[in-house]
Amino acid sequence: MANVSATDEALVQEIDRLGEKLSKLKAAIGDVVFGQESVIEQTLVTLLAGGHGLLVGVPGLAKTRLVETLGVVLGLDERRIQFTPDLMPADIVGSEVLEEAEDGKRSFRFVRGPVFCQLLMADEINRASPRTQSALLQAMQEGEVSIAGHRHKLPQPFHVLATQNPLEQEGTYPLPEAQLDRFLLEIDVDYPDRDAEKRMLIATTGANQPVARPVLSADELAAAQALVRRVPVGESVIEGILNLVRSARPGPEGRPDLGKLIAWGPGPRAAQALMLASRARALMDGRLAPSKDDVIALAAPVLRHRMALSFTARAEGVTIAHVVDRLVEPLR
């Protein structure tokens, strides 16, 4: 018992220390990105859980600025790719070039693409062709890319934060369900409130621009991600996650009142994402274990890109947000 107690005490101390660092981290981001507290929290939850995030919002809401700031405060090597219809897979992952040495011998050399970084911003990801979008699949899921039969490991930690404009859909290619499922959270980026927009207006149009400062290092982020997986989860929270995810599927275990509204529901990866994200959110608040409140708060960003509405639901004007709200009612 003494060993167990010592282990528990060490875990508590690690969580406390991480909580202090995360408070400084959020403050450093807030000095540069005004308002958007929910977006910042969900993005940090995504990174702490070791996942990838899809930021959905109209232009001009500081999505690019947020990713650049995260690269600085987390000490990560950050790159940005502007996705366009003419972007090719090799423009992302890299390619092999034929070189000739002084003695006349020829050989191929692999030239790394921008995906070889620790934090990749895929700007307007739905503007690239499906072939180019799929170039990210292996990188996002396996942390490596395959070129000419050779596997190349990506730097660790590796995260993709992609952006998408929900309004202008002309000339875009909707992300396939397989790739959407790779994103831990779909994060809605809304307009800032009046006070936040006023502070932003004053701070960003003056002589002195706010500048991000480093708070963590890549190694410290990796250690925090390992700590997230050690956070204990109570049986009631585990059952709550299972009940929520399974009830979001059409079929015998689904909600009878919602079955006709759901065309297809979330798979097991949704439950895994909800478990990891709930643990990370608890750490963000300095708590030792997640609660059902964490599950409720993260249900929408975890589920909304992993399920689709039926024709009946769309005809009746039902939205994914409405369905998720009804799914989480038993947890309240």
TrEMBL record:
Signal peptide: none
InterPro entries: ATPase_AAA-3, CbbQ/NirQ/NorQ/GpvN, ChlI/MoxR_AAA_lid, P-loop_NTPase
SUPFAM superfamilies according to UniProt: P-loop containing nucleoside triphosphate hydrolases
Alphabetic keyword roster: ATP-binding, Nucleotide-binding
UniProt KW S-adenosyl-L-methionine keyword: no
Lineage top rank: taxon: Bacteria
Domain ChlI/MoxR AAA lid, residue spans: 262-325
UniProt keyword annotation of Aminoacyl-tRNA synthetase present: no
Domain ATPase AAA-3: 52-185
Matches recorded under Gene3D superfamilies: Magnesium chelatase subunit I, C-Terminal domain (1.10.8.80), P-loop containing nucleotide triphosphate hydrolases (3.40.50.300)
Coiled coil: none
MF annotations from Gene Ontology: ATP binding; ATP hydrolysis activity
Family membership: Belongs to the MoxR family.
UniProt protein name: MoxR family ATPase
